[in-house]
Write a structure and sequence with these properties.
elongated, Immunoglobulin-like, about 425 residues, 22 strands
């Protein structure tokens, strides 16, 4: 379920709490939604803790990126007792909990707490919430609940105790729900503000262009098309520089790409690290119903150039051609002559995804737009590097001299389809 529609079903949560009345601390465990579990268990003899609280979440390939795992104490006003996200975690020591184990990687997340206060063992009713992004880019939330009615063993009393009344628990659940809904609302407001700022900037720029170049109505048609095409793009490939793994072979059949690449390779413009190419085999190996393809070049996690191609009737290789160009940030790429415009490029020179205008004579006169250099056998200075691939692009709005000052080095490039 998505972030904006997620709600607690209070009766369902209470109904899923499993309680076992065994000597020692009672154990509660539930599984709610695919792949999530929350368990309250007794420690081994001799432990100075009265129990352990463990939330595990594992899934198949449908999890693209974990946002956060949180644990609430419903029986204590719905307070947050622990959280885990990329690069940071929080545990409420004053609330009577210590971190025992944490794990967050790819499609698995786990957080285990030691319970140091007996009342948390005796009266605890806990909720685990996991937020993640699925393979379609949608925000999803999974939940699980666990609780205890009996106490005993180690630091806990052997006297029978009773959970708080149903009304108290429902009140606590309502407070937890309000907290999450508040966070949801704040996040949505931030997203709306960001979208409004972007839209206003685009509209302002279009008005400026209209004032200056009003007779070029075709410009605005392309801008409108571009705005539409920014929606519903799916990442098919990412080429990463300076990792000494050929970008061409990686694109063709995944050569050199490990089975499980870093999340940062799949989430474009994130601050997470990426040390590999990324290949979406489900798209590239089953190329069908592709309407458009977009090549984007990035520096400092910002798009600096793009080309949008007509993908209809294409395959995963021939879409990359001049005759299929629909629009581009390079204004001359649709009409200026080219001697190379293909993914294979000039293989003998290691020039892949190669878009070149002419070779007038000598390296210092070559003119073009973009290339991913897998190697440099002919050692032209403009694509000699200590490591490869090297990805270079014309920084201006037109093709330029490869060896001149107006060529930049890309941080990476990405291919999207829709």
């Amino acid at each position: 379920m998505t972030m904006s529609t997620w709600r607690f079903s209070q009766a369902a949560i209470l109904a899923t709490v499993c309680v076992f009345f065994i000597s020692g601390l009672s154990v509660g465990s539930t599984v709610a939604s695919d792949g999530i579990s929350l368990t309250l268990s007794t420690p081994k003899d001799g432990s100075d803790h009265c129990g352990y609280l463990t939330c595990n979440h594992s899934s198949k390939a449908d999890v693209t990126f974990f946002n956060e795992l949180r644990i609430y104490n419903i029986a204590n006003n719905g307070s947050t007792i622990a959280s885990l996200s990329q690069g940071k975690h929080y545990v409420s020591a004053e609330g009577g909990f210590d971190l025992k184990r944490k794990y967050l990687r790819n499609s698995q997340a786990s957080l285990q707490l030691s319970i140091t206060k007996p009342e948390n063992c005796l009266f605890g009713l806990y909720l685990c919430v996991v937020d993640f992004i699925d393979e379609h880019g949608a925000k999803q939330t999974n939940t699980a609940v666990a609780g205890a009615e009996d106490g005993g063993s180690v630091s806990c009393s052997n006297d029978r105790v009773v959970l708080k009344s149903e009304k108290s628990i429902l009140d606590s659940l309502a407070r937890v729900e309000q907290t999450i809904l508040k966070d949801d609302k704040l996040l949505q407001e931030k997203m709306d503000r960001s979208q409004n700022v972007t839209t206003n900037l685009i509209e302002t720029k279009m008005e400026e262009i209209n004032t200056k170049y009003g007779h070029f109505s075709q410009v605005f048609e392309e801008l409108n098309l571009l705005e539409d095409r920014t929606k519903e793009w799916t990442l098919a490939f990412r080429g990463t520089p300076f990792i000494d793994k050929a970008v061409y072979e990686a694109y063709i059949d995944g050569t050199g790409i490990p089975f499980d690449v870093e999340i940062g390779c799949k989430v474009i413009t994130s601050s997470l690290p990426c040390y590999n190419h990324y290949r979406n085999s489900s798209i590239l190996d089953h190329w069908k119903n592709i309407k458009e393809v977009k090549l984007v070049i990035y520096q400092n996690n910002v798009q600096v150039h793009y080309i949008i191609f007509n993908g209809q009737g294409s395959n995963y290789l021939n879409w990359f051609s001049q005759r299929r160009v629909l629009s581009s940030s390079w204004t001359d790429i649709k009409w200026k002559t080219t001697n190379y415009f293909s993914i294979e490029g000039l293989a003998s020179h290691g020039r892949r995804f190669y878009i070149n205008h002419v070779f007038p004579g000598g390296c210092h006169l070559d003119i073009g737009w973009f290339s991913a250099f897998d190697s440099s056998p002919n050692r032209c200075p403009y694509h000699t590097s200590a490591s490869y691939p090297l990805m270079k692009f014309a920084k201006g709005s037109e093709a330029d001299v490869w060896q001149g000052p107006n060529f930049g080095v890309a941080d990476f490039f990405a291919i999207f389809v829709k």
